[in-house]
Amino acid sequence: MERPRDAIRVLKGRGDPIDTSARVASILLLPVRTVTHLTEKSRYFDQGMLIAAFAERVFSICPNCSGPVLVTCRSKAGIPFIPKDARATCLRCSFQRRECDVEWHGPVNGMAKRPCPNCGTQWLEQAARGKTPKAVEKDLSLITCTSCGLVTKLDLEFIKERFGSANDPTFGLPLWLQVSCCGHTLWAFNGDHLEKLRQYISASLRERMSNLKWSMFSRLPAWMTSAKNRDAVLKGITHLEEALRSIEQ
Q: Taking the complete model, does pTM exceed 0.85, yes or no?
């Protein structure tokens, strides 16, 4: 068998030519290192999207017939989220709510802080969360001043908990898209919200810009972002997508 010309190299002034065919063969037989590149589907870059971006169109549960309610509104900013032109319309019965007769159905945070009315030297402070203002007041007990010993009941100021629970942020109605998952509740506002959650949860590499304190993904609970729960969370998202298709048909 005739050797190829490039397999023989002649070194000038150093005697006989050197046969490089063996070296070429050894190089060709070296194992090839496999380099795995992350596909676009397996990585997600968090650009700081707020959860309020999905809050202007939300599916909730009707308090009258337990059917789906479409809640719509608009807000000039995500933080603070102040709904305007709010409207809730049941897709099965005649239930409707508008901005002029808003009644909050969701959880509230009760807070109070004031100086002791007797000595004035000690600040009295209480905070609690509950489903309704009455429930919060019931859970709170009288507070005793550590300076003078006066027992006082504080008047609480209530703040609507618009985000962080399975309730729509406009009227506080329980969300239509919620399911038990990994011992917790997995919920979403609408189809776009579900799609973003699926993209983030399924990603093998999750990247984000620095200092994104209010990013929706940076505030997800640990059980949702844990790798061991990925399959269970994706299964829950699929279940919610099917529930959404059932009311959109």
A: no
